[in-house]
Every structure is written in C-alpha cells, then in structure tokens.
Amino acid sequence: MAGIRVAFTIDSLKLGGAERVLLQWARWCRDEGWQVVVITRQGPELDAYPVPLGVQRWVEPPLAPLLRWLGWFAFPFRVLALRQLLRRHGSDLAVGVTTLPAVKLLLASAGLPLRTLISERNYPPAKPPAIPWRWLRRCTYPWADLHWVQTRVTGDWLRQHCGVRRQQLVPNSVSWPLPDRDPLLEPDDWLAPGKPLILAAGTKARQKGFDCLMPVFSILARRDPSLHLALLGLAPGLYQGLDQQQWLRQMLSKDSDLQQRLLMPGVSGSMASWYARATVFVLPSRFEGFPNVLLEAMAAGCACIASDCLTGPADLIRHGENGLLLPMGASADEWVETISGLLEDPDRRRWMGERALLVREQYAEQRLRRDCLEAMRRLCHG
C-alpha cells in the first residue's frame, strides 16, 4: 500500500533507547515511500539523534504562560494540540512510544479516521508513572489497534492490568557493523592499550545499577592495579536533579589512583570501538525493557554479565552459554567472583563471545523490519 501517512510521537529525541528505536522505525517507513512525521513535545535543542532525511520533524506548539502555570491540569490542551497536528498531517497510522506520549496520542486520536499503535519501552511496574497517568493508561490502552511489546512478560502484564489484547512481540533489532556518530570518543584516548577494561553503558545510573558496581570495582581494582571501569553515557551535570557522575565517584574511596581508573567519558558515538576494547561487558540493571546496549555488546562478541531483572537480559542470554546472568539482589561478592572469573579466563571469554555473535542473526534488522512494516500495512488495510 503506497502513500501511507505515519505519525510517530514521543516526548523528545534525547539520548535513549526508545528515541533511537523510534527513529529506526521512522526510517523503515520512509524507505517504503511512506510519508512520515515525528512529533515531539520538546524542541530540537534536546536532540541527541538526527532525524532521518525525508522524515518531517514537528514540535507541539508551546502552551501559553497561563496554561503552563496550570501544570498537570493543562494536559487537555496538550491533547488538543496533538490532535490538530494529526489532522494537519492526515495520518493513516499514529504510533505512540513510551507511556505518557502513548496516553496522549490515544486521547488525541479518539474519533479520528486513523489507526493507533502503542509501544511501551520498559517493564511497566518497574517504573510506574504517577497515579493519574496509571489510571489514564488503564482506561486508554485497550483503545489502541495494536501494541508492540518487547517481551512476553511485558505483554502478560499489559494484558492482565490494562486489558490489552491486540499485541505483537517486537524486540529491538541490531545493525552490524554498528555505525559511528558524533561525538567520537575513542577508548585509546582514555586508557593505555592492553589494560583490562570492564565496560558498562547507559544514561540512567540508578536504573542501570551503576551504583552497585562501585564496591565491586573497588575490590577488583585493588587486586589488579591495571584494571579500569568505563561507564559510558552519563552526561556531566544534573540529570533529574542529580549529578550522576559525582554521585558515583563519592561511593569510591578518595584514593586518587582508583578515581582515575573509573572512566566516565560521557556520551560516545563510537560504541563499536568500546565494545571491541572491553575485556568484559556488564549490565547490573534493576529493570529493563529490552536492553539495546546488551544486544549491541553481544553482537560485538563481548563476554557479557547481566543481572537477571524481570525482563530483558534473560531474553538474550542463555546462562553459561552466550553470557552469564546473576540473580537480582546478588551481593557485591557474587559480582566480584563472577567478573574476576571471566577476567582471569580468556578462553572462556572468547568462547562466550563467539556464541553471543548469534544475536546478529536472531535480531537482524532486515527480519524485524519486514515484520513491523507488514503489521503496519495490515492495520492501514483494515
């Protein structure tokens, strides 16, 4: 079906997995010759990713100062603003990504001649929104024509708690080789060649469990004076009122050598180089949706260790075969033992990394692209 008009809506295009996946979907639709617009509430000053060529970018009009003062009670006016944009675009299909934009989309599209597709990006009870949003989610989610869920556990929860029946399992895809983008931060600029490196990545320190790594690294680094830990993705300055880099550094001893071996370069667009440089990749997350960084690290052939949180890592890792899983709540000593076991066993790291490479086929972009576009076509035909 040529000429499908698709609108994607999300709060912003800041750094994050949901934002990156949405732009990938937008690119797939553009490549089909469809007319695509990405609608955000926040402006381009927050963008971490470029909008694909040929995809329009619209920003919801700002509210009047008096309405902004109303806070949450101004939400109906945001719904009306989005509704006007959908009508202006003449959308055949609208896709809402993450909870609040999804709720707003379902309200804004009520009565319009278009189909709706919703995608949660985390396991919902792991990061519950405020009570009004939970109530609105419960009321509106059954209206959607289709939900894309990343894991079966998330789908089961949405079915049980939100009455969501129309679902399709759509995990994230992986592209290989992993493309570079700005800013390019190379590992050789941060540590000397040959030094062992524990690598972790993410923009949200607490969700990713980076604080749990501080006592682990402290023990391991004292055993091996050449060992480094790199935490990629943490921007300097405040995030939701917290200086994440300072928060983590305060958990280490004030030993200057230890502090120097904790690397926090910030956001890097050269992730393939970091994965290639890592001795071990770790993901001690408290919760996930479907972890892009773990998928990428496995596609790069890293030996990976992840926490077995409720959703995500266990969908990718078969414990003892293509990686290692540690139970939620594992102690620092258990993390130390597991990481040190891999650091000291290069043959096992190589063996696990070779098996991890199979995710390139299991989650190949071409296969998932075909499934997603076919689902969109069926919705629009209906």
Structure characterization notes:
The chain has 382 residues and is α/β, with parallel strands linked by helices. It has 2 domains: 5-173 and 364-381, Glycogen Phosphorylase B (Rossmann fold, 3-Layer(aba) Sandwich), CATH 3.40.50.2000; 187-362, Rossmann fold (3-Layer(aba) Sandwich), CATH 3.40.50.2000. The protein is built from 16 helices and 15 strands. The protein has helices spanning 17-31, 65-69, 75-89, 99-108, 131-140, 152-162, 210-223, 244-249, 256-260, 271-277, 292-299, 313-316, 332-343, 346-356, 359-362, 365-381; strands at residues 5-10, 35-40, 56-59, 93-97, 115-119, 146-149, 167-169, 197-201, 228-232, 238-239, 242-243, 262-266, 280-283, 304-308, 324-327. Strands 3-2-1-4-5-6-7 form a 7-stranded parallel beta sheet, sandwiched between helices. Strands 12-9-8-13-14-15 form a 6-stranded parallel beta sheet, with helices on both faces. It has a two-stranded antiparallel sheet with strand order 10-11. The chain starts with a strand and ends with a helix. The mean pLDDT is 95.
Topology of helices and strands:
Layout: E1 5-10, H1 17-31, E2 35-40, E3 56-59, H2 65-69, H3 75-89, E4 93-97, H4 99-108, E5 115-119, H5 131-140, E6 146-149, H6 152-162, E7 167-169, E8 197-201, H7 210-223, E9 228-232, E10 238-239, E11 242-243, H8 244-249, H9 256-260, E12 262-266, H10 271-277, E13 280-283, H11 292-299, E14 304-308, H12 313-316, E15 324-327, H13 332-343, H14 346-356, H15 359-362, H16 365-381
Parallel strand pairs: 1-2, 1-4, 2-3, 4-5, 5-6, 6-7, 8-9, 8-13, 9-12, 13-14, 14-15
Antiparallel strand pairs: 10-11
